[in-house]
Amino acid sequence: MLKLHYNLEKLSMGLVGAIIGVASIGGLVEIAPLFTIDETVEIPDDLRPHTPLELAGREIYIREGCYACHSQMVRSLADELDRYGPYSLAAESAYDHPMLWGSKRTGPDLARVGEKYSDDWHVQHLIDPRSVVPVSIMPAYPWLTRPMETDMIEANLSTLARLGVPYDDAMIENARADALAQSRPNSDGTDGVRDRYGEDIAVRAFDGNPDRLTEMDAIVAYLQSLGTLTDAAHRIMSEETQ
Amino acid sequence: MAVGVWLAALMYWPEATPAWPATSYGRLRPVHTSGVIFGFGGNALIATSFYVLQRTTRARLADAVSPWVVLIGFNLFCVWAATGYVMGQTQSKEYAEPEWYADLWLVFVWVTYFALYIRTLARRAEPHIYVANWYYMAFILVVAMLHIVNNLALPVSLGSGESFTIWSGVQDAMVQWWYGHNAVAFFLTAGFLGMLYYFLPVRAQRPIWSYRLSILSFWGIVFFYMWAGSHHLHYTALPYWTQVLGMTFSVMLLVPSWASAGNAIATLNGAWHKVRDDATLRFMFVAAVFYGLSTFEGSFLAIRPVNSLSHYTDWTVGHVHSGTLGWVAMIVFGAIYTLVPKLWGREDMAWPRAIEWHFWLAIAGTLIYVVSLWNAGITQGLMWRAYDEGGALSYSFIESVEAMLPYYAFRTLGGGLFLAGAVLCALNCRATMRAAGDRVDEADRPIVTKPAE
Fold first, then answer.
1. DSSP labels, B100-145
2. Which of residues 178-197 of A touch B (CB under 8 A)?
3. Which residues of B touch A142 (CB under 8 A)?
């Protein structure tokens, strides 16, 4: 062996090849099967992709780096089930490019935060966290009350569709209108959004003002959707406890 | 040539992570991580790799232009990345936040770097490739592999900075932490081990203790590390078998890691008086010790039940900093203090006593930082899982946040001390460069002038 290595270290390309070969094995064994067992990760029938408004909120969540302090992955541990709710399923983030499971909980996990607090609470909390949670160390995001840019929405949906997220042509075509309608409960477009994304989606003036589409509308719509894209996790939990 | 890279390294100096950032923490956080990993670590690696490569092969770099391409190109990447984050351009993949335009540029720079490295190796006047170069090669090659696979993404349009990664959900999580953990292995460990294998023996004037052990630990690290990424995903929606594999290999990883650390420390046998008297060598010794300690901690934290307590808490952050401050930064300081006087033709740094000050500031800063975050993390983990007698959770989340405040204050102090030492180092380097001498090392004589045997 030592003799072999003695000769190997005289060949630069030999070392290059050996390093690439040896280093590839671990990744191949662990990653490649995940694409075949993908078929066994059952996508629940009721799983829906994010609406255009929620997706825009997700982009804001990423832009502001929320994932650095908030995870979105409830582990299968007793205290986490009690604190946050049912443990996260692989299927729940199947349409997430990228996933936002996170790695640190400076703040609490958000995987099940949808519909846990009111829209007003979220708006107030994002503008001035310490006004609702006095000892919070979360930064304030007062600039989220500015109008939302809608130029990229269609392109975002169509890019995701090319990556396999089930957005159909009608969804892409109406993306901008759907984003507006979801934050204007009394407008004409609301039936269209519900048709395309399901009766259960929240159609509300998330920031409290139906006349303006703001970044606050998007981020609150996104937060309220977390954990509500499918009931599968709740179903499995109730089956297990029975 | 290393001059420019070095100045860049010092310019990118880490901000000490503030405990209560005044503005948008979420945008500054990747500036901090990329700044220290790529800006400081990357520049230090590239600079020392060129130096070590030329010394151990007795050959000049193969090209006059491409080193500048690597230097300027790499720092351009760092600047693009950092400006992007502040403006909100991020992929949100931890330690791989730069968007597609910066990623593509880095691939170009990296290919240039690799080509230069291989061409220089091809001109070598030594038949054997020294162990430090194996590590630098592993660093260059595997980082390229990780970077390309993890960053495969579809841009929304050519005119916009945004893109969506092609991976999703559980596959994305696995690819991300395969990348994330091996960024630690091959960016923050392999290259720096190369540094250790060159600068420590040179400074101590002792040969490496065991050649066989260095072979064992090199291939062990290259092989085992690649399996360990899934220990970042214990108890999540990742399949159980993958978690167990990740845990098993993480524990086995302790063998090659301690082989390297032990090899370095055993090399110092017979030179302990130098460790006592020479702060530069002491930096390298402490680096090897911290390397041993944090790899042990890493294997320990990768065990599933331990991880159930430590994951998501500040314990992880403390662990990372014991590696980055205690090991990575210390070995870099050791290399800086060896290299700067040599390159500027002097016997020693301009202010030798400042090295001593820097050493103790760095040690104090690292210990305060790491110990306070150990306490923070364990407290946090225990509070989250505590139940009262009635079977209800004892603490609300915000109570665990409140309990962290004193620890966060201490960690800021620790970071501040460490930063103060680093500033001192930068000033010392500047003073040394301005007082350049004309001393030429005996060993600098080209091999060709020797009479033929």
1. HHHHHHHHHHHHHHHHHHHHHHHT-SSSSPPHHHHHHHHHHHHHHH
2. none
3. none
